[in-house]
Design a protein that fits this description.
Blueprint lengths: L17 H14 L4 H25 L10 H13 L1 E2 L4 E2 H4 E6 L2 E6 L12 H7 L2 E3 L6 E4 L18 H8 L2 E3 L6
Antiparallel strand pairs: 1-2, 3-4, 3-7, 4-6, 5-6
Helix pairs in contact: 1-2, 1-3
């Protein structure tokens, strides 16, 4: 019989899945954005527990349901999105865009009330981070996922799952302002 490991966590104690820990991490980094010491603690704990939860998930998952993203990849993307501003061009990604977390995929589209074309201003920045443009089925968003993550695609057909099905299966969380923790 396998021995159950005990996990002690300050920030992620209620998280039982990769999707939950990723969402919680994004909330915490926004909430503690001005506290460098706390962000270091949160990042260390995220790295440890994300890896544990990802490995637990992948043990019984088929190839197309396995999670390929690493904690380091996700942390890097969140940090860059959260802090991107260009005063000279009056660009502030968190002001102009709606960042949505869908499982371990990140989608960037126009913020509510903003013209959909506003994301063009962020094109070069998003492409540098590895985002790709998706205008299929009128999505019109920039998407990012780990190059090893295949979960959104159906096996063999490689056909995109409808947005509503993605939201139902993996959940959807908008990341634009500090959430209440």
């Amino acid at each position: 019989m396998a021995k159950k490991t005990t996990r002690t966590s300050v920030y992620f104690k209620d998280c039982k899945t990769v999707d939950e820990i990723t969402a919680k991490y994004s909330d915490l980094t926004l909430f503690f954005s001005d506290d460098a010491d706390t962000l270091i603690e949160i990042s260390k704990e995220f790295d440890e527990f994300f890896t544990i939860l990802r490995d637990e998930h992948n043990k019984g998952a088929s190839e197309y349901k396995q999670i390929g993203a690493t904690a380091e990849e996700l942390r890097g993307i969140f940090e860059q999105l959260r802090t991107f501003k260009d005063a000279e061009k009056d660009l502030d990604l968190m002001r102009d865009c709606k960042v949505t977390l869908k499982g371990t995929w990140i989608w960037v589209g126009a913020a509510d009330g903003k013209d959909a074309e506003i994301t063009r201003n962020y094109r070069n920045f998003l492409k540098q981070l590895g985002f790709f443009w998706n205008d299929k089925k009128n999505r019109k968003v920039w998407q990012w996922h780990s190059p090893h993550d295949k979960r959104i695609y159906r096996p063999k057909q490689k056909e995109l799952i409808p947005v509503e099905e993605v939201d139902e299966k993996y959940g959807s969380r908008v990341i634009t302002a500090a959430a209440e923790i």
